[in-house]
Amino acid sequence: MRIDLVRRSLAIAGAALLFGSPAFAQKPITIIVPYAPGGSADLATRVIAQFAAPTVGQPMIVDNRTGGGGLIGWGAAARAAPDGTNLLTVELSYAIAAGLLPSMPFDPQKAFTQITTAVKVPHVLVVNPSVPAKNVQEFIALAKAQPGKLNYGSGGNGTNTHLAGELFKSTTGTNIVHVPYKGAGAVLTDLMGNQVQALITSVPTALPHIKSGKLKALMVTGNERNAMLPDVPSAKEAGIPKMDMDYWIGIGAPAGTPQAVVDKLNKDINTALAQPEARKKIAEMGLTVVGNTPAQATQLVASEIQRWSAVIKQAGIKPE
Q: Contact, 301 vs 94, CB < 8 A?
């Protein structure tokens, strides 16, 4: 007990020395976002940077490193100095890529230390209103009665919308044809035009079209209903608990970042996320604050890599 207390005190002291050192004070904290500005990962990271910077005591800068479906940003973060001034936005696509890309220039399981899972949001199964199914069980029955006749769209091969569709197929035993598009906008246009009949995407992406009546929501991919779609049953209610799927966004750091620094950043970021104004901004994006521990965030990333690697292998998905 006394030894643990001493170790904890030394760790806290070490973090204080690092964060309080002149070298650290002169350098802002950079959070690499491996995608273009404007998406959920970018916007959530900007909220974190805005509200956590005063607590951390350092400026927090968002650096969008785009390209390669995330590889450019991930690679840059993996090569960055593990000194607490270089962070990375880690989200669902990272876990998918770990199973999809066999020759990544770093080990996706070991390249980063997870700090926290910041926010999450479930996906939602939407169909064109002309599809004669009032609920997900009727949609499954329709797909089984007409194998290979229904199509589902995705934002591209290996994207979260593609993997969600394959998870649905394997979980329900249905044969629905995958039609990949180049981005979410194109698939939504064709879905509303009935060129494809279904899509599983994040709630914020589909929400405006559900509210306008242009799309019909059959199920949210969570074990509980979503506050943005209170009348739409959860996957658990629909009898498909294995379809529990969140789009999650977290913060990580290069492997080797001192644990005391990781722990302090975890505390500071989670404190920021607990602020009412930060929670309000996150909620306006359709996201829910998580704010877990480094150990819990690490477990989530590891389990998600394992989960989506299995889906990719079973579906025979290959990188383009």
A: yes
Boundary (domain end) residue, out of 195, 212, 243: 243
Amino acid making up residue 320: E
Domain that includes residue 228, residue range: 122-243
Give CA–CA dist 75/105, Å, rounded. 7
For residues 233 and 252, membership in a common domain is answered with: no
Dihedral class, residue 286 (left if φ above 0, else alpha if ψ from -120 to 50, else beta): left
Please check whether residues 9 and 46 belong to one and the same domain.
yes
Q: Tell me, what DSSP letter sits at residue 105? A: S
- For residues 114 and 258, state if they share a domain: yes
What pTM value is reported for the model? Answer: 0.87
Helix locations, 101-183, DSSP H: 136-145, 160-172
Two structure tokens written together for 105: 């220039």
Element (H or E) spanning 268, and its range?
Answer: helix 259-273
Residue 84, token pair as written in the block: 């607490």
From first to last of the 320 residues of the chain, give the pLDDT tens digit.
444 444 444 444 445 555 554 444 568 999 999 999 988 899 999 999 999 999 999 999 999 999 988 999 999 999 999 999 999 999 999 999 999 998 899 999 999 999 999 999 999 999 999 999 999 999 999 999 999 999 999 999 999 999 999 999 999 999 999 999 988 889 999 999 999 999 999 999 999 999 999 999 999 998 899 989 999 999 999 999 999 999 999 999 999 999 999 999 999 999 999 999 999 999 988 899 999 999 999 999 999 999 999 999 999 998 87
- Alpha carbons 201 and 315: distance in angstroms, whole number: 19
